[in-house]
């Protein structure tokens, strides 16, 4: 649910500051008796040095927890004030905060808001006629975007549903794939193909919701094992190979899954032949060599229809599991994608372009990674939006590898479970609230929400001032999107972005230890946009010609 109310100033005495505001209030997730909400204030008037937002609940809702604000409630009246680090809001700038609450009966969206006593209804009342100052000449750019030089086409950013457990709820799925306030914009959902067809129904509802609630959402389906009777060890677990005389049965099995899902209204866009063929743990798993994978997709791949095939999702993108398929014309023509997991890939020197895949025009997808060493698995640090250790791991380890994957020319980055205490929305453990967006989710959303399927990565250059920044740029949908990772301990203030053409509007969204997808002020001058990049942050700047 989303409400946007814009502000109009009351009558102002001569010499008073112009005032006005808009407020976006979104219920980001809801469960029985509880909900999470995100609130964004946009200042339409003169700069603010502090702010107080007030509203009333209409159905007895009660705030239970808040972040990025000091929030109090008296009866139905709610008052949210800035904290020490987010009181200043420039003209046109935004600030956001979030809270959790409880409800009974219903949870309607508030209908009116006021900032510093001024009702928010959509415009401002300036006390004097606006004046136009002299237009300044172009500044020396710090980031120069080159739309003429293009790299990979982006297929998306995503995560997996539970492979063996329960599915995401409708509200959780919408939070993960939706593009509204407080939603993360994932464009790929990974699911498992159980060896037991009676288990296929578990994820149907979540996958249908993902397709319906997101934009161009793709579904990747990965099998962990074939049925036990078809394997050399007669077991679902501990590896074991698929017997060669069951290759045709396995192809039929995968094709049946695609057909089943299609009949349920879910298009399976990509089917992997095997999850981690080089890893044989004491849970569902199956062993393949690179030559065996080639033989299977060469001889059986065409039987798996209405989808595209992927090999090989090896643990560390081991080329030995994909080169044989890429080097065989028939096998290569039967696949659409190369997949690999990030575990050990950087240490092995393979977090880089894959020339053989690029040469044969097979996009590379990073289809799984999970890293959570900032705190123990029961530590409530994971539910603390401002926890330093969790934020440092998110920025320096997780988001750094997303940036590097894009620079490597890969087309997709898919995290492990989307709903987990160390992931994008909480699962109710380790201090998290089930369905509530976590800081790592907001950070990942700086890519997922704004860099969309079909966008192309484009070239850029940086000045010495911008050298601490890790930056990638993309073009699509008539816009240029620039994702800026500042892992240094110093802000880069007044950074000038040079576009190849005049810019009409510029948006800047920031996630840091203290902000979650918060709007930031920008200045536009012809083809240049000036932004400030706080220390230890990730931001996305969107330029519209």
Automatic annotation (TrEMBL):
Domain of life: Bacteria
Domain CBM2 per the UniProt entry, residue ranges: 14-123
Residues of the signal peptide: 1-19
Keywords assigned: Carbohydrate metabolism, Glycosidase, Hydrolase, Polysaccharide degradation, Signal
One Pfam family per UniProt: CBM_2
Coiled coil (UniProt feature): none
Gene3D superfamilies found in the cross-reference section: 2.60.40.290, Glycosidases, Golgi alpha-mannosidase II
Family to which the UniProt record says this protein belongs: Belongs to the glycosyl hydrolase 30 family.
Name of the protein in its database record: CBM2 domain-containing protein
Lineage, broadest ranks: Bacteria, Bacillati, Actinomycetota, Actinomycetes, Micromonosporales
